[in-house]
UniProtKB/TrEMBL annotation:
Domain of life: Bacteria
Position of the signal peptide: 1-21
Key words of the record: Signal
InterPro entries from the UniProt entry: DUF4440 (IPR027843), NTF2-like_dom_sf (IPR032710)
DUF4440 domain segment(s): 30-135
Protein name stated in the entry: DUF4440 domain-containing protein
Pfam families in alphabetical order: DUF4440 (PF14534)
Length: 147
């Protein structure tokens, strides 16, 4: 009987270990996706925007406007041409919370040009569909400059 208990205990341990490894893999994938997106946003990469945002996106901008993916994608045509760098974007203090096929991210977005530096508190909800993480909800809040 003790052999069976050990076997069941080992099985439960392996299941827990596998779940932890999958969460770590998903968290790393989401962090990489965010970094790729920010690099793409820096050069106005329309394909990266299309990959990052889900079709049913709800986006709340730092100016308090709410819109979906179609509006966001249409706004890219008035942005600088691909390859033209206007503002470089990076993420600091990234937090990722995983709940099966849903992830919540929160981070401080830094937008930096030659003459300016802006900070935003961003949070987003990603859903894993067809084995791809996509953002379904986004909130951006402009921060006062650090002093």
């Amino acid at each position: 009987m003790s052999g069976l208990v050990k076997f069941i205990g080992m099985g439960l341990f392996l299941i827990a270990l596998s779940a932890t490894a999958e969460e770590s893999s998903d968290a790393e994938h989401i962090e990489n996706l965010l970094n790729q997106f920010l690099a793409g946003a820096t050069v106005n990469d329309v394909k990266m925007h299309d990959r990052f945002w889900a079709e049913d996106l709800i986006y709340t901008s730092s100016s308090g406007k709410r819109f979906g993916k179609a509006t966001l994608m249409a706004s890219l045509s008035s942005a600088p041409a691909a390859g033209e760098q206007r503002m470089r974007y990076t993420a600091e203090e990234l937090q990722i919370k995983l709940f099966d096929d849903v992830a919540i991210i929160a981070f401080r977005l830094v937008g930096e040009s030659a003459s300016q530096r802006h900070y935003y508190l961003n949070s987003g909800t990603l859903v894993k569909r067809d084995n791809q993480w996509r953002v379904v909800n986004w909130q951006a809040t402009h921060m006062k400059p650090e002093q």
